[in-house]
C-alpha cells in the first residue's frame, strides 16, 4: 500500500481537548493532542507543522463539526479549507459525537452531551454505536430527563449530573465508515449550530 497517496488528515477542535491525526481507515501514522489555557487557534497550526505539513500528500481532510465550541470548529474549518485548496482535495465534516460513540460502541444507549450556553445543552443519542437521535437542544430540565433514559451519559465538559468525561478524537474520525449518511460533503462546511443566533 502506498500510504503517501492515501493519507487523510483529521481535525477535531469541538471541545477543550483538540487533536489532529494523520492516517486512514487502516493505519494511524500520528496523532497530536493539545489542550490547556491556550486557544485552539494558537495550538492547531503548530501541531499541523509538527505533523509535516505542507509536504504531506493528502487524499481527504476530515473535520469534526460539533456540536461544541463554535470558535474552535471555525478555526479547524478555516485550516482545513486552506489546506484543501492548496492540495486540491475534498473536506468532509461529521458530528464530533460519532467519535465518542465509537469509543463506547458497546454501550446499549449512549448520551453525548455538551454545554450550548444560555442555560441550554446539546444532546446526541446512540444505540450500540449507531445514531439513534441526531443532535438536539435541551433545557436543564430536559437534560435531566434524557440522562435518566440512557445507559451512560458522557460529556467533555463539567455538566450537571454528567460525571463521565469523554472527548472526541481526530483519530476516531479516520475510522468512521464512508457510507455513513451523516457525512457532510458540501464545499462550504459550517459548524453544527442548532438554534438561531442571539443577535441577527
Describe this structure in words.
The protein is α/β, with parallel strands linked by helices and 200 residues long. It contains 5 helices and 10 strands. The strands form 2 sheets. Strands 3-2-1-4-5 form a 5-stranded mixed β-sheet. It has a 5-stranded mixed β-sheet with strand order 8-7-6-9-10, sandwiched between helices. Strand 6 and strand 7 form a beta hairpin. Helix 1 packs parallel to helix 2. The longest helix has 18 residues. The radius of gyration is 16 Å and the shape is globular.
Write the layout of secondary structure elements.
Blueprint: E1 8-12, E2 18-23, E3 28-34, H1 40-51, E4 60-64, H2 70-87, E5 91-94, H3 97-103, E6 109-117, E7 120-127, E8 130-139, H4 140-149, E9 152-155, E10 164-165, H5 170-173
Parallel strand pairs: 1-4, 4-5, 6-9, 9-10
Antiparallel strand pairs: 1-2, 2-3, 6-7, 7-8
Helix pairs in contact: 1-2
Amino acid at each position: 500500500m502506498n500510504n503517501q497517496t492515501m493519507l487523510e488528515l483529521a481535525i477535531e477542535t469541538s471541545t477543550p481537548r483538540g487533536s489532529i491525526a494523520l492516517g486512514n481507515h487502516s493505519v494511524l501514522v500520528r496523532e497530536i493532542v493539545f489542550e490547556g489555557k491556550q486557544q485552539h487557534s494558537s495550538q492547531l497550526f503548530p501541531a499541523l507543522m509538527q505533523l509535516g505539513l505542507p509536504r504531506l500528500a493528502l487524499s481527504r481532510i476530515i473535520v469534526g463539526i460539533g456540536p461544541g465550541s463554535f470558535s474552535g470548529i471555525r478555526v479547524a474549518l478555516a485550516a482545513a479549507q486552506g489546506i484543501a485548496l492548496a492540495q486540491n482535495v475534498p473536506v468532509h465534516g461529521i458530528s464530533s459525537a460519532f467519535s465518542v460513540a465509537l469509543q463506547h460502541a458497546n454501550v446499549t444507549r449512549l448520551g453525548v452531551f455538551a454545554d450550548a450556553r444560555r442555560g441550554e445543552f446539546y444532546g446526541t443519542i446512540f444505540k450500540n454505536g449507531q445514531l439513534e437521535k441526531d443532535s438536539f437542544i435541551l433545557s436543564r430540565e430536559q437534560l435531566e430527563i434524557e440522562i435518566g433514559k440512557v445507559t451512560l451519559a458522557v460529556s467533555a465538559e463539567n455538566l450537571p449530573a454528567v460525571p463521565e468525561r469523554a472527548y472526541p478524537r481526530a483519530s476516531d474520525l479516520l475510522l468512521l465508515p464512508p457510507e455513513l449518511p451523516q457525512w457532510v460533503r458540501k464545499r462550504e462546511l459550517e459548524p453544527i449550530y442548532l438554534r438561531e443566533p442571539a443577535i441577527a
